[in-house]
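Support request, please re-run this one:
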Amino acid sequence: MDDAVAREMWKALEPLHTVTYFSPECIGANKEVGLRGYWMGYFGSRGAPLGPVPPGVVEATFYGFSPARVRRAVPDAWRFAAPESILAARARAAADALRRAAPGIGDAAPALVPRLREVVGAADGSGRTLFAANRDLEPPDEPVEALWQLTTSLREHRGDGHIAVLAAEGLNGLQANVLAAATSPVDGEWLRESRGWSREEWDAAAEALAGRGLLDGDEPTEAGRALKAEIERRTDALAAPPYRVLDDPEGLFADLAPLARAVTEAGDMPFPNPIGLPRL
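Re-run finished. Output below.
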C-alpha cells in the first residue's frame, strides 16, 4: 500500500469528523451542555477526551493556537461542564449532524464501523496524545456515533503525527500556520484570526521564516514550498501504517467517499477552510 492512500483517506474521514466544528447541531450542543461561546465549545469539546486538563496541555496538543485564545477557554470550560457530559453531548450532536448531511449514513455505518475499528486498533498511540485519548473512550453503541468517534480517533492520529513532523522541523505552532497560509489558498488573515494570533506575533513569525530562507515577504521561497511538501509527505508516511491491516484500504475509501461528499455539499464547512481540507 502506498503512503498516499493515507492522504486520500484523510480527505474522506476529515469531513465526517469536522461536523463537530461547523454544524449547527454540534455548536448548539456545546452551548446546551454549558460551554460559553464558540471557542470554549471548541476547546472543551475537542479536549474533553483528555479530561479536565490545564491550558498548557491544550496548547501543546492542539499546537497551532495562540496561548491567549486557549487560556480564555481553559480551564474555565471544566467549571461549566464536566468532560463526561461534553463527550456524551458531542457524540450525539455529531451523529445528528451526519444523519442530516448524509442521509444514507445510518445504513452504511454498521458495515463501516468494524473496518474502522480494525484500523484504530492497529494504530500506535506512542507520542500521540489526542489519538490515544480518543481511542480509549468507551465506544458508543449507536452505529453513527461510533462511526464519528472512530473517524475522530483516526483524524487525531494523523494530526498528532503532523505535529511531530512540524516540531522536528523546528516550526512552532505559529510558524506552521504562517507557512501553511503562504503555501495554500487559505487567506492568511482568516487563519491568523481563527487561531487567535496578533498581527505583531504573526509578522514576527514570518520574519523568522524569512530568516530561514522559507519566505520572501508573504510568498514562499522554493525552499519553503519544498519544506511544506516534505512535511505533508512525512505526515502521510506516519499516518499510513494502520491502514495496512486492511486487505482493501481502497475499498474502505470508496465506501467513505460518498458520505464525505454529501457532508461537504451540505454547506456547513467553508472552502477554503482553516483546516486546509480540499473538496473530495
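Strands lie at 215-216, 219-220. The mean pLDDT is 97.
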